[in-house]
Amino acid sequence: xxxxxxxxxxxxxxxxxxxxxxxxxxxxxxxxxxxxxxxxxxxxxxxxxxxxxxxxxxxxxxxxxxxxxx
Length: 70
Fold this sequence. Notes:
By secondary structure, this protein is mainly beta. It has one domain (2-67). The protein contains one helix and five strands.
């Protein structure tokens, strides 16, 4: 997933997975770290899943939050 904005400020993506919670600046599973157009890549073979004991074979709930200053 990716985001690009026509505004001058840099957008930030925050992503939570599995439990449906809204991601925030302090509570998220994945976060974009790019400057300018941002993206987050979530792969089924990422060690994140194994480290948390989650099996992705049945699907994954993903919630994305975008923060951008005006």
